Amino acid sequence: MCGAKAGGPDASTIKPGETTIQGQVTRGGEPVTGYVRLLDATGEFTAEVPTSATGQFRFYAAEGTWTVRALVP
């Protein structure tokens, strides 16, 4: 369960049992910069990463149930 820098490391580094959670934060179709938080199945904070200039983010986490929350202006 960890966060990665904006955009995240290369997907070829994923290990068995890990899950990739990725996406893009947009508003009105335009990318938004800010932060994205990863919360576990109980709603507890696990990790946070900044979005890239294109609004993209990526987390590598253990398999399970996760919630992603965007924190943007």
Keywords:
Immunoglobulin-like, mainly beta, disordered N terminus, 73 residues, 0% helix, 3-stranded antiparallel beta sheet, 8 strands
Overall shape:
globular
Number of DSSP-assigned strands: 8
Give the CATH architecture: Sandwich
Q: How is the largest sheet built, in terms of strand order?
A: 1-7-2
Instruction: Report how far apart the termini are.
Output: 26 Å
| CATH class descriptor name | Mainly Beta
Global Rg: 12 Å
Number of domains: 1
Write a short abstract of this structure:
With 73 residues, this protein is mainly β. It has no helices and eight strands.
Task: Tell me what you see in this structure.
With 73 residues, the chain is mainly β. It has one domain (2-71): Immunoglobulin-like. It is 0% helix and 49% strand. The chain is built from no helices and eight strands. It has strands spanning 2-3, 18-24, 26-27, 30-31, 35-39, 45-50, 56-62, 67-71. The strands form three sheets. It has a three-stranded antiparallel β-sheet with strand order 1-7-2, with no helix packed on it. It has a three-stranded antiparallel β-sheet with strand order 6-5-8, with no helix packed on it. A hairpin with a 2-residue loop joins strand 3 (26-27) and strand 4. The radius of gyration is 12 Å and the shape is globular.
